[in-house]
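Technical annex, item 7. During the second reporting period the consortium partners agreed on a shared format for inverse folding records so that results from different sites could be compared directly. Each record opens with the tokenized structure and is followed by the designed sequence. A conforming record, contributed by the partner at site C, is shown below for reference.
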């Protein structure tokens, strides 16, 4: 992101708008999104395997999945229009509200045009032997080309903060702010 974009985020989260992204800016962004998430209509489970299994069921259980209709909302998978997304039934309504909201503003439409998937029954990346959020269809990736797992947000990754706010308002974890990397990833967990 540019210095100007970082200053905009800093102003939005109520910290010193100096264009230098450091611990105070990180904490302010986390607090801002946490405040939005606290008002969310759904309280998602924690990220530990026991909580995820108790709430969503076992990873890879395709009987728990459903489709949401995203026809006409500008969702594209590597340039091809998408009409439906396969997602866990417990977060389907929430994800549909998110996609509809994103389709109403320019940055959101730009992100939806770079959809990179939800369901993929696989382990987490790296040497972790736990299932990925994608194995339960509770995680979505967007703008993967410029917001990868090892790309720090917001100094290198460019996921728009307004997009993160939309996800946070539904209680979804925004990896870019939570982990300061993997800004393409959002998941229905705390």
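Designed sequence (site C submission):
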């Amino acid at each position: 992101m540019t210095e100007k974009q970082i200053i905009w985020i800093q102003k939005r989260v109520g910290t010193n708008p100096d264009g230098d992204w450091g611990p105070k800016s990180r904490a302010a962004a986390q607090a801002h999104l946490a405040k939005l998430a606290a008002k969310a209509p759904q309280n998602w489970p924690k990220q530990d395997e026991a909580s995820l299994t108790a709430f969503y069921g076992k990873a890879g259980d395709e009987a728990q999945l459903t489709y949401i209709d995203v026809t006409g909302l500008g969702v594209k998978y590597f340039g091809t229009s998408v009409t439906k997304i396969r997602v866990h039934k417990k977060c389907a309504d929430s994800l549909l509200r998110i996609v509809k909201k994103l389709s109403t503003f320019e940055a959101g439409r730009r992100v939806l045009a770079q959809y990179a998937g939800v369901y993929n029954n696989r382990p987490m990346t790296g040497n972790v032997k736990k299932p990925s959020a994608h194995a339960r269809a509770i995680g979505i990736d967007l703008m993967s080309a410029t917001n990868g797992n090892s790309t720090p947000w917001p100094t290198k990754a460019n996921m728009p903060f307004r997009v993160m706010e939309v996800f946070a308002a539904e209680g979804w974890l925004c990896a870019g702010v939570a982990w300061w990397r993997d800004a393409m990833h959002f998941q229905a967990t705390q």
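The mean pLDDT is 96. The chain has one domain: 3-187. All partners now use this format for quarterly exchanges.
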